[in-house]
Amino acid sequence: MQFERLGVDPLFPGSGEVYKCNGYYLNHEHGGIVNREWLDNNFEACADDVYVASFPKTGTTWAQELVYVIGNDLNFEKAQALPMHLRFPYIESRVFTKDPTKIELFKPRFIKTHYPFSLLPQSVVDKKCKIVYTIRNPKDTLVSYFHFATSNALFDYQGDFPTFFKMFMEERVVYSPFSKHILEYWQRRNQDNILILMYEDMKKDLASAVRDIASFLEKTLNDDQVQQVVKHCSFESMKKNPSTNYLKGFMRKGKVGDWRNIFTEEMSQQMDDYVQRHFEGTGLKFKFDL
């Protein structure tokens, strides 16, 4: 594991020191050197662990809640009893590595990560743990990331949207490069232990996503149970639920196509060029509107 120290970015004073780790941008709060060393030396995956992995702001919390309620046989009371960060700990966060007992609260373990596949703890790969990975079109991802970074103290972003857009395109936001992150999981989509969820497909037909997750977790749901999960995991329900929407600005709109309210034509074309350059021939097609 190779770390390159990049110092503190004045545009992200809340993030602390920024690093480049094997080509990926990380920071002190999310996947920094101390956290990574702890994971490498102490963390051991269990064969029945379930991981929700993603690039930030691609539907992570949505997927977590879906996986959690289905994995716990639709125990909605249990899902609402504790905030998401306790029942679905964020593996590379300093909050977790300072108190690793939090991961042992429940069995089986449900764990969140924003790590690309290449930075996952080796035991997760070796034991072929189940991984659910969410993908969202990069235009909406960028807009959502901007609003989150502006409102969240762990980023405390001090710049404007054009500057954030430029940083995203230059692969200088935390967990970048976006394209490489996505493709590391996408190229493994046919593995039995990896399920890819497309954000836009979930917005269009959540019931189908519920059935896919249930099948992946080897759970059987009837039509009525599927609809119960759909109702519980609708964006409107989750936004009102303090166990899932526990930080200011964490859940904002959740819309497909919100990028049209802030992108210029030039930005849209630049992103289209980025997508063609990095994803052409991979079989991955993004949906920018519904």
From TrEMBL:
One MF annotation (Gene Ontology) recorded for this entry: sulfotransferase activity
Pfam families recorded: Sulfotransfer_1 (PF00685)
Sulfotransferase domain segment(s): 48-283
Superkingdom in the source lineage: Eukaryota
The entry's keywords: Transferase
SUPFAM superfamilies named in the record: P-loop containing nucleoside triphosphate hydrolases
InterPro entries: P-loop_NTPase, Sulfotransferase_dom
Family membership noted in the UniProt record: Belongs to the sulfotransferase 1 family.
UniProt-recorded name of the protein: Sulfotransferase domain-containing protein
Organism annotation: Strigamia maritima
